[in-house]
Amino acid sequence: MAGTRSSARQAANAAASSSPASSQSQSTANKDGAAGAKRKGGPTTSPKAKRGRKGAKKEQATLEDTLPNQATEDESKDTEMKEQNEAPPNQTPEDESKDVAMKDESKAPSSESHDQTSAQENPNGTLKPEDPATANGKGSKQENLDTASGEPDQAAQAEAKQNGTEEAKPSTGGDAVEESSKREESTPSSILEKGIIYFFFRGRVGINEPSDVNDIARSYIILRPLPHGAKLGDGPIADAGHNRMLALPKKVLPASPKDRFMNFVEKTNVTMEEIKDSLSSSDYMTKTAGSRHTPAAAPIGEGVYAITSTGRETHLAYILTIPSEVNEVQEGVGLKQRGSFVTSAKNPETAAPGGASLPKGAEYPKEILDEFRGRGWMPLEPKLLDYENTQFLLIGHNDGALDKATVPQPEDAKQNKDEPKAEMEKLEHEDDVRVEHLKGDDSVFEDLGLSSKEYPKLQTTW
Fold first, then answer.
1. How many helices and strands, by DSSP H and E, does the chain display?
2. At a CB cut-off of 8 Å and minimum separation 6, what does 446 contact?
């Protein structure tokens, strides 16, 4: 009996000594579980849709927090003749010749006579998804590692993908950008690229606030491509270094099929810091006029875009998120709430219509030049925008521009893909919610890493 009691006593003591460690382990497990649950619940907030706030007049803000600065200037012809040799340090003779060369494109080919072949989806035109093994997303099923091997739980991943419950994980695009295999599967192949788009214009030298289109020196489009299967959550979009700056020498966007405006890629595969330098203000001295001031570029719109293929043509389509309703400034430069343009890229080895060529053309590799097959034009594919000095036409539509750019393709319908227009509307709604959770119109500046104090406010009236 004494031996039995001693054994029981020893067992009780052993259990008591191990209890704190067991309790601590259980507490740690509960905390980890709670962290994972919080991560999953984060991006599921769904405020009112944009159309529901149409009546509410939100305060117009600047796009300064999201865009970069450059001191490129375009002066009136008289000023250019007087100060040809007195341009500021950041403006070269090549920059001046670009404007002159791009002014005459009246003989550009029509959108129906290009003899274009079907544009194929470009894997290089979108951001490369982040490796799940290096993604920093706690609580994600992608990070359930086998304790013995340190490898992902492949069975759990496969089951989640099959059931459609795989959790979206942050990508290299930033906190607001999430990659989803389900979204990847539903996005139609006719969307060659999608992303965030910004519109800017810069006033002429000495004109900080343009009073009409004639006061504009040049307009710009900033493209920030997203992964094909990306969705947008809360927060600003981090800089992935794959940004493009497109220059519009005509200053306005084409409004009808008669308008065929030549544009070019000014910067590509650059950081937002480099774009910021390009859009910033500058001051310089001239012999004839003394001190001159080039104003910073002002934002006039932000939204989502898609480069789409409808077979023989490609299109640049967009839906504006900011401002919620277009006003006289947006209308003055040809921006609509929803719009699109037929796009066509110029072969740098052929002469441009009316001599509208840049001093130096795009330097394409042989495999891209071969795709032109000796023709002067081909449908604009995203990979062509990854080369500086790529020249491309934007051709206007009359009515139903977005519908013409998002015609569903038979191969996507067979695979039960979403329609291109539906995917764009889904992305725009996510962007609208994201903007509301940030700073409204000022979210443009936050996205681009700019200070709203250094750039003009979002302009909607002259």
1. 12, 14
2. 65, 66, 236, 438, 439
Q: For the chain, report the end-to-end CA distance as a whole number of angstroms.
A: 100
Amino acid identity of residue 418, one-letter, is: D
Structure tokens at 104: 């005459």
Residue 377 β-bridge partners: 346
CB 186 within 8 Å of CB 417: yes
In terms of Cβ atoms closer than 10 Å to its own Cβ (0-12, 13-18, 19+), residue 131 is exposed
**Cβ-based neighbours of 233, under 8 Å, separated by 6 or more:** 42, 43, 168, 175, 176, 177, 178, 430, 434
Q: For the CA atoms of 27, 30, 36, 42, what is the dihedral angle to 10 degrees?
A: -100
**Under 8 Å between Cβ of 70 and 297:** yes
For 232-282, what is each residue's pLDDT tens digit? Answer: 999 889 898 999 999 999 999 999 999 999 999 999 999 989 998 999 998
What is the model's pTM? Answer: 0.67
**Angle at CA of residue 131, ends 119 and 154, nearest 5°:** 110
Closest to 281 measured CA to CA, from 108, 1, 69, 99: 69
User: Tens digit of pLDDT for each residue in 54-80?
Assistant: 444 444 444 444 444 444 444 444 444
Distances in Å between the Cα of 336 and the Cα atoms of 7, 199, 252, 301, 342 are 85, 12, 12, 10, 15
Looking at residue 455, its pLDDT comes to 67
Q: Is the dihedral of CA 19, 25, 29, 34 positive or negative?
A: positive
pLDDT recorded at residue 143 = 38
Q: Cα torsion at 428, 430, 432, 433 (round to 10°)?
A: 170
Q: Are strands 174-179 and 243-248 parallel, antiparallel or unpaired?
A: unpaired
Written as one letter, the residue type at 117 is T
Tokens of 155: 């069975």
Q: How would you label 190-204 residue by residue, b for 16+ Cβ within 10 Å and e otherwise?
A: bbbbbbbbbbbbbbb
Within 13 A of 38's CA, how many CA atoms are on the CB side? 7
User: Which of the 8 DSSP states describes residue 350?
Assistant: S
- SS3 track for 102-164: CCCCCCCCCCCCCCCCCCCCCHHHCCCCCCCCCCCCCCCHHHCECCCCCCECHHHHHHHHHHC
Paired sense of beta strands 260-270 and 391-395, if any: antiparallel
**Using an 8 Å Cβ cutoff, are 345 and 114 in contact?**
no
